[in-house]
């Protein structure tokens, strides 16, 4: 899960300005922490936690540099937008044989836990495993940045102050709940644990999957997998429906006539690449046919995406695809999660 989604429509990013580390920055950072303390107390963080954590924090210019180097991270950039890159190379990197093989092995080893979670939530076990594989390669790398320091630095920098301040306060609440400070490490942008949850997401959906009374997404695979499923339920996953299926679109398809008509409030570039919703029967009448996966009912609503353009592989997407996008608003990410899930799933 990422604070800034991968937007496959972004262009080249200009070099970000250098991050200042002058004494004035240190003084400003200290003043920011003093203001934060008052807000955190008002939002229920204990004085004990604040006294233990805030004096240990220092400004980390590295995380600000990383944030500014993200696509869209430099507001002053005037670089022209590049053409949309191809999906096929991304798929080759993220749905590769090593990730598939390891995913199959983890699926087999954890089948009883996964099947229980699937039965309870309706989220397919292969999809849960695929998210885990994409986020941290099945827990093999979860990030080494100290979240309180990273989030405090990003909040102080100010470009997205409210977002990162809220996540810092959520992190302090995790410590209040008994999560050890040394355990709360992750990406520079604040994603943590096997599922790479932001702290606020942990507070909202983290679940105890092994019955020990704690939701330990850092050390318990069962807890991490149960928490991923809980996120999907919270985002609206519909039981018994696939994320989508591969399809073939004819060259004569009138793509202007099927263009999307919605204006989503979030990630419009990502949703611009989807067609409008039609039933499977309506797609078939236009020459679009399913070429694999579980058979979709004629009255199932689906949208079409051709990530590499006409003549390349296409996909009919159900509403559950939008749930994967909620985890990370990138078509390349969501398609790769779905394809990895299909590859990891045991043969029926």
From TrEMBL:
GO molecular-function term, one example from the UniProt record: peptidoglycan lytic transglycosylase activity
Any Pfam family: SLT_2
Organism of origin: Sphingomonas changnyeongensis
GO biological process: one example: peptidoglycan catabolic process
Domain of life: Bacteria
Name assigned to this protein: Lytic murein transglycosylase
Record domain Transglycosylase SLT: where: 29-342
């Amino acid at each position: 899960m990422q604070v800034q989604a991968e937007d496959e429509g972004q262009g080249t990013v200009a070099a970000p300005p250098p991050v200042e580390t002058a004494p004035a920055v240190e003084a400003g950072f200290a003043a920011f922490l003093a203001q934060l303390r008052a807000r955190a107390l008002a939002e229920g963080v204990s004085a004990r936690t604040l006294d233990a954590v805030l004096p240990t924090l220092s400004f980390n210019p590295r995380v600000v540099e990383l944030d500014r180097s993200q696509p869209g991270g430099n507001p002053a950039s005037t670089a022209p937008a590049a053409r949309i890159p191809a999906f096929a190379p991304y798929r080759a990197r993220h749905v590769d044989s090593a990730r598939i093989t390891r995913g199959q092995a983890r699926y087999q080893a954890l089948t009883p836990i996964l099947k229980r979670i699937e039965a309870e939530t309706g989220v397919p076990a292969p999809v849960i495993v695929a998210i885990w594989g994409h986020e941290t390669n099945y827990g093999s790398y979860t990030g080494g940045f100290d979240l309180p320091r990273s989030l405090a630095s990003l909040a102080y920098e100010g470009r997205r102050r409210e977002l990162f301040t809220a996540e810092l306060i959520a992190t302090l609440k995790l410590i209040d709940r008994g999560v050890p400070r040394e355990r709360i490490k992750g990406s520079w942008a604040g994603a943590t644990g096997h599922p790479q949850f932001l702290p606020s997401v942990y507070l909202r959906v983290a679940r105890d999957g092994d019955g020990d009374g704690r939701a330990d997404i850092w050390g318990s695979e069962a807890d991490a997998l149960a928490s991923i499923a809980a996120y999907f339920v919270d985002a609206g996953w519909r039981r018994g429906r696939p994320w989508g299926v591969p399809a073939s679109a004819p060259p004569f398809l009138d793509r202007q006539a099927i263009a999307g008509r919605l204006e989503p409030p979030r990630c419009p570039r990502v949703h611009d690449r989807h067609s409008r919703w039609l039933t499977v029967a309506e797609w078939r009448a236009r020459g679009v046919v399913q070429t694999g996966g579980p058979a979709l009912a004629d009255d199932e609503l689906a949208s079409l995406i051709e990530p590499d353009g006409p003549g390349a592989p296409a996909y009919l997407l159900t509403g559950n695809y939008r749930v994967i996008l909620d985890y990370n608003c990138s078509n390349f990410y969501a398609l790769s999660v779905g394809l990895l899930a299909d590859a990891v799933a045991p043969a029926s």
